[in-house]
Amino acid sequence: MRFSSALSGLIVLLATGCNYSSDYTTSPPVVSPPTDKFAEGLWTVSGGTREIARLAVAQLQTDGTRTPATRLSTSAATLLTLNSIAFDDSGVMWVASEDDSRLIGFAPGSDGAAGVITPLITIQPVSGSIAGPTGIAFDTDGSLWVANFANGTIVRFDKSQLSKSGAPVPSVTITGIDHPTGLAFDALATLWVTDLRANTVSRYLRAQLATSGEKPPAVVLSATSNSLVNPSGIAFDSFNNMWIANTGAESVVEFRPPQRTTSGSPDPVVTLHPTETSLGVPAGLAFDDEGSLWIMGGQGTLSKFTVGSIAGSGNAEPLLQVKLENNSLLWSIAFWPKPSGFPLN
To answer: How far apart are CA 269 and CA 297, in angstroms?
Structure first.
């Protein structure tokens, strides 16, 4: 396992747990959704610098080292270690802060002149509702799902619960998976969950997501050889193929729909192997409007692969690579505006 010094403690960070904040005790008023939008580009969170960062569209056209066009800090969360990011349909940017177990929603225009951003909404934990979150994803109803790595739960906050700050009890809490890590919905609106410790990827049917309880996944894909080694990021392309980032093997693999109907240990259809210049401990995955796959490495290297370049296995040779200057502990990425024509990620 070729972990970099910046991410050599990744498994330890996830395994040792976090210090959680006390329960939220006040009830702020409901806030209105934003009327403007965040700037276009690719957004991420750097645990090394504790910043929310954006690469502008122009910065994603050629190779090179880039200083992010937007760099935002906040006092609302530590933003240390492994933070997830996603946009809701109204344009609010949501960040799950893994180290202090909270969800924070930012409205465009809430950043100050000094690059400090104040959240529109802060969701704090109550009775383990949020516990070391490492993955978030929105469903078709606008509800937010959270993978709680620290206590082995997957929880749903309904859209109405995200309208104001507080410590709401999740509308659904699912147990039965050891260390849920990354989340993504496929074209059938079923939820897939990676488990970094168990080296599995699991599927929950829509009916299973309707109520709380301890539920075995409908499908569990297990590792064969190095097919799944510390799987983290997950995304679906426009053909409903599932892509997984293996932080341990420093590879990215593809499983197609027929391979995902029943439990087993299928061989990936495509395995992108690392080279000296690519992948760099892959963690975050996202597809753009053209169908190109973007891979964020934990060391701060972002790689773009065209549809044609990921059609078969082999050494991963990206169309271009961008290095985020002085950034490390990158985990999750999201495009704004949200690309169309893809399953929910």
So the answer is: 22
